[in-house]
Amino acid sequence: xxxxxxxxNASLDIxxxxxxxxxxxxxxxxxxxxxxxxxxxxxxxxxSLIASYRxxxxxxxxxxxxxxxxxxALMAKVRFVHEVDYxxxxxxxxxxxxxxxxxxxxxxxxxxxxxxxxxxxxxxxALNRMSKGQQAAVNAIFGLAANAPITIFDxxxxxxxxxxxxxxxxxxIEANAHYPRTMIFSNHTVSGxxxxxxxxxxxxESRVILQEPIDRFLERGFRVSGAKEKVVRFTDGMNVxxxxxxxxxxxxxxxGSVDEADRKTAKEQHLYIEPLKVQELxxxxxxxxxx
Length: 291
Hints:
This protein is of the alpha/beta class. The chain has two domains: 5-205, Rossmann fold; 219-288, Alpha-Beta Plaits (2-Layer Sandwich). Helices cover 33% and strands 30% of the residues. The protein has ten helices and 13 strands. The strands form three sheets. It has a six-stranded mixed β-sheet, with helices on both faces. A four-stranded antiparallel β-sheet has the order 11-12-10-13. Helix 5 (132-145) runs parallel beside helix 6. The mean pLDDT is 92. This is ABC transporter ATP-binding protein. InterPro entries: AAA+_ATPase, ABC_transporter-like_ATP-bd, P-loop_NTPase. Keywords: ATP-binding, Nucleotide-binding. It holds the Pfam family ABC_tran.
């Protein structure tokens, strides 16, 4: 199975407004991507190009080397999971999964029900009798069970209860190992999702300002803590972004990488170095426009 997604200088204008500008991306099978951007940055519009809901005003979008727009075979490779309102849905997840399997041949109903059981969700209970968080989990699980070569989750985990959300992330990783696909999680906040991504994509003011592997991304900044005079001396000449003091402990956030020599010095000075979280780095990079 191959599902390489390529966007080359893709732009999107709607009613004379530029929604996306000069976006170039390459997404590979078997990798999980985190698409991050503030509300209004154009995340859903970017995903709509990949899902062929829209055609770029300029540039190109390709799946497996072909333009997917109005190509039924290619469009069928994409599963775009977004928030669904189940308020009026009297059917159960079990019923809907069996029905879905009939018109989506790749959908694995048994796999869906097994995952729901793992989340502690009763598949025989009507959806409109479930909490909003449980409804969101059912929707997301159906997205995994669709086994689509390109699977997109557009802000679908926000209203899940914390425990459900964390369990779902584990299932997403397992599902991608079980059936490798191109998986995209789009959100304006990624707290608690650091372990999920293979690569990070940051969209800021209609432009992609960064795409890189998660390990390289996390090397872009760090926090160092310890005695004030030692921290100040250690970070002299570095790009210090913020400072926090708590009693005798001084902590600063630094934009930049730390090498083995720095780590050795920090250890000798009894300083503690820790990487920043994805959300922290995202906030820093979109504020400073560096990257």
